[in-house]
Write a structure and sequence with these properties.
Blueprint: H1 3-8, H2 11-37, H3 56-61, H4 67-76, E1 89-94, H5 104-109, H6 111-119, E2 122-124, E3 138-140, E4 146-152, E5 155-158, E6 161-170, E7 173-178, H7 188-194, H8 199-207, H9 211-215, E8 221-226, H10 228-233, H11 241-249, E9 252-254, H12 259-268, E10 272-276, E11 282-287, E12 293-295, E13 300-301, E14 309-311, E15 314-319, H13 333-339, H14 344-353, H15 355-358, E16 366-371, H16 381-386, H17 388-396, E17 399-401, E18 415-417, E19 423-429, E20 432-435, E21 438-447, E22 450-455, H18 465-471, H19 476-484, E23 502-507, H20 509-515, H21 533-538, E24 541-542, E25 556-559, E26 565-571, E27 574-577, E28 584-593, E29 596-601
Parallel strand pairs: 1-7, 8-15, 16-22, 23-29
Antiparallel strand pairs: 1-2, 3-4, 4-5, 5-6, 6-7, 8-9, 10-11, 11-12, 12-13, 14-15, 16-17, 18-19, 19-20, 20-21, 21-22, 23-24, 25-26, 26-27, 27-28, 28-29
Helix pairs in contact: 4-6, 7-8, 14-17, 18-19
């Protein structure tokens, strides 16, 4: 028997066919009745006008949230294609907001690329409604690559982009509005290039000669992409071209590690895991208490809103910092000091009091004003090394903790509290930066835990005049005489009036050796010190603070602690003391101290009574 006849001989099937036949007869009768009522007739009945459905091109042009797509279609000449009534399309149409993350101007200016991108959103040959889609469905696009549908919690996604408005029907197909531009078939290099937030990274890749590597279909990589702000904050100018290449390669892993895989790695390793990069060294990921994921202890943080950006040859995760391989990272401040040849004296001093360990701490941040070796020449370094408590205070006065302050952040008059406890003051003159009078000779030497500024003097402005004289090699005889005369306490305070401070005209060692009978080895026997040394020394001290610029240009008498007056006069920048008697010249002006100022002079002043 004919198989078809055998099927229809089944009674239940025959019954169903009979019911369908009856239904068709009813529908046919209704159609004939309706046809008889169509058009204008003698009864005056008018059929409501019909509106032909719009093509996809027309439909898109009428949608307020598809204006960017329409402009792109027109730029690529694809609007005519989607107006074709003889074809059928399913279009996944990015809404205007979907284009915000991308460089639309660049795409419009590169019509070949734009055309491929748009064609990847179009399936030709069928109108697939949302109800027709199943999880895992794939469709070959007009561009040639496949797109994949996924369904999660009732929402439809196509290559990761969510369908926000489904089933917008047109005369030649259907449109599904989506929340992202489909770029999953573009290379990692192309994705970085057309994504607004990573254009700086792509430019760096291109300049480093790595664009081909990021576009190579055989290089399936995971890229941790610093955003533009991160690149703007990073300074790679100190690295060679080869080192920049290494830094960029350090942002990539071999293979695809999506966010789910990364989270699993963290879970499997107690919240912290290190992964080898294509550069060769490892990146360390750590899950922080606030839910963020840090890279390399805070060099960068994953941008949780911009993960899993698929490319044809990998996946991209945006981060907010530039990563530097450990071998290319700057040393700690302690390491920087030890590796800088002009800071050997500072390095020895730091080691002597254990501050090198403090400046090696990468968990803290410091700004260090670092005296170069030549800066220590005027000072008694052996005395400082033999007096660790004084040395530690002196060194602490050069260190600010809590921030890395670069020269561009400094303003005239800025003050900073040092580790020692006293404040230092910034001054800027003719483009040069000074800290408590010491000039910054080399600014902004970056370290892993802060920044160093090399300076041309040791900062001693918070020491008393006695302490300054003690640590200044050329005032050592004065310091000894002050101690033997019992004047140390008197010259360590603000002066007899207890107000501004004191001014000390400090004879240099050469001045004392010339005034007293020196031994052949340049020393002075105590027997050569006059009994009225205290009076002579006090004749060198004023009960007020006078800087060199404050000295009048006409001869002026000023009272000393000894009681008699000294006469001072300034001619230009030269200051003379007792011009008609001792005729002493100021050879080292304005040595600031915490309780006044010292002016080194070339002659011992003798009171009139002596």
């Amino acid at each position: 028997m004919d198989p078809l006849r055998n099927i229809f001989s089944n009674s239940s099937v025959s019954a169903r066919v009979g019911r369908w036949t009856g239904l068709l007869a009813v529908l046919l009768t209704m159609a004939l009745v309706t046809a008889g009522c169509d058009g204008d007739d003698d009864d005056g009945m008018v059929t409501p006008p019909t509106t032909d459905p719009a093509s996809i091109a027309e439909l898109a042009a009428d949608q307020d949230n598809l204006t960017t797509l329409v402009a792109a279609l027109e730029a690529a000449g694809l609007d005519a294609t989607l107006a074709d009534e003889n074809a059928t399309f399913t279009v996944f149409a990015p809404a205007n907001a979907a284009f915000d993350a991308y460089d639309v101007d660049f795409l419009v200016g590169n019509t070949d690329l734009l055309s491929e991108v748009l064609q990847f959103h179009v399936v030709q040959g069928a109108a697939a409604l949302a109800g027709d889609l199943s999880d895992g469905d794939t469709f070959t696009t007009v561009q040639g690559d496949d797109i994949t549908v996924s369904i999660r919690d009732g929402s439809v996604f196509v290559n990761g982009a969510q369908v926000t408005t489904a089933d917008v029907e047109a005369s030649n197909g259907v449109v599904h509005i989506i929340d992202d531009v489909l770029l999953t078939n573009r290379t990692a290099g192309e994705r970085l290039l057309v994504t607004n937030a990573t254009e700086s990274l792509y430019n760096a890749i291109d300049q480093a000669g790595l664009a081909d590597a990021f576009n190579d279909p055989n290089n399936e990589w995971t890229t941790f992409a610093p955003n533009n702000a991160a690149f703007g904050a990073a300074d790679l100018s100190g690295f060679s071209d080869t080192e920049v290449q290494a830094i960029l390669q350090y942002h990539t892993l071999d293979g695809i590690t999506d966010s789910a895989a990364l989270l699993q790695l963290l879970a499997d390793n107690g919240g912290e895991v290190s992964v080898a990069t294509n550069q060769g060294e490892e990146i360390t990921f750590r899950e922080e208490a606030d839910g963020s994921i840090s890279l390399n202890g805070g060099q960068a943080t994953l941008d949780l809103e911009n993960l899993d950006q698929r490319a044809s040859n990998g996946i991209i995760h945006q981060i907010d910092g530039v990563l530097v391989p450990p071998t290319l990272q700057p040393p700690s401040l302690a390491g920087l000091v030890s590796e800088t040849s002009s800071l050997s004296t500072l390095n020895a001093a730091l080691g002597a009091v254990g501050l090198d360990a403090t400046l090696a701490d990468d968990a803290a941040t410091f700004t260090v004003f670092a005296p170069e070796d030549a800066s220590f020449a005027p000072y008694d370094v052996e005395y400082l090394l033999d007096n660790p408590m004084v040395l530690e205070e002196v060194l602490g006065f050069h260190v600010v903790q809590g921030a890395a302050v670069f020269s561009g952040d400094l303003s005239d008059g800025d003050t900073f509290t040092t580790v020692q406890g006293d404040d230092i003051t910034i001054s800027i003159s003719d483009g040069n930066v000074f800290v408590d009078g010491a000039q910054v000779t080399t600014p902004d030497v970056a370290a892993s835990n802060g920044v160093a500024h090399l300076i041309d003097d040791v900062l001693l402005t918070n020491r008393t005049v006695v302490e300054r004289a003690t640590v200044t090699s050329d005032f050592s005889i004065l310091a000894d005489l002050v101690g033997e005369a019992g004047l140390a306490d008197a010259l360590s305070g603000p002066g007899p009036d207890g107000e501004d401070g004191i001014t000390v005209f400090a004879p240099t060692n050469a001045a004392f050796l010339a005034a007293l009978d020196a031994n052949d080895n340049g020393t002075i026997d105590s027997s050569e010190i006059p009994s009225n040394a205290a009076d002579i020394l006090q004749y060198h001290v004023l009960d007020d603070v006078f800087f060199a610029a404050d000295v009048p240009t006409s001869e002026t008498a000023l009272p000393t602690l000894e009681g008699a007056d000294v006469t001072v006069v300034r001619s230009g920048s030269e200051v003379t003391i007792n011009p008609n008697a001792d005729d002493a010249s100021v050879v080292a002006p304005d040595v600031e101290a915490s309780n006044g100022v010292i002016h080194g002079i070339d002659t011992v002043l003798i009171p009139p009574s002596n």
